[in-house]
Backbone:
């Protein structure tokens, strides 16, 4: 299974579109492997806007007969790292997705990990609608996942950046 996992994650990257912007390479390695579970973000740091988008997505899932996903702390930690990285690059990307997914798998025992990213949507409803109008993003939102986390961070110019990580365990 460990041999197949990197290939599955690569397939998700290739079939999942990012948004209306180009990707930017260059995500630097971090010392994530050295972090203890105690340093990971908790649900207490989940913002209201993130919780609201999470609820919109879960309400959509429920409306089409899917399970509601549960918030997952480790994914939130990695989503926040990636959202901050995208802001530092002033672009959206799935850079180093394989590393993020592998770290989530190591910490949670996940079977499969996927992600959606976006920027420059003025509201969470706009972001949700943008994802739903993209086949790759919609596939993740409506996928066979039981855990998720969303990071939304505003840059210095007031632009919102989004990372949602989906976990199947």
Residues:
């Amino acid at each position: 299974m460990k041999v197949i996992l990197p290939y599955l994650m690569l397939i998700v990257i290739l079939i999942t579109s990012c948004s209306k912007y180009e990707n930017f390479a260059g995500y630097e390695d971090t010392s994530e492997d050295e972090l203890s579970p105690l340093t990971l973000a908790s649900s207490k740091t989940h913002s209201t806007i993130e919780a609201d988008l999470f609820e919109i997505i879960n309400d959509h899932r429920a409306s089409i007969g899917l399970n509601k996903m549960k918030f997952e702390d480790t994914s939130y930690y990695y989503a926040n790292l990636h959202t901050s990285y995208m802001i530092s690059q002033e672009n959206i990307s799935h850079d180093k997705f394989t590393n993020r997914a592998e770290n989530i798998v190591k910490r949670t025992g996940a079977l499969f990990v996927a992600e959606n990213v976006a920027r420059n949507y003025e509201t969470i409803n706009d972001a949700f609608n943008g994802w739903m109008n993209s086949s790759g993003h919609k596939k993740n939102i409506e996928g066979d996942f039981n855990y998720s986390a969303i990071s939304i961070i505003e840059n210095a110019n007031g632009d919102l950046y989004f990372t949602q990580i989906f976990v199947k365990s």
Helices lie at 4-15, 48-63, 73-89, 97-108, 124-132, 135-141. The domain at 45-168 is CATH 3.40.33.10 (Pathogenesis-related Protein p14a). The radius of gyration is 15 Å.
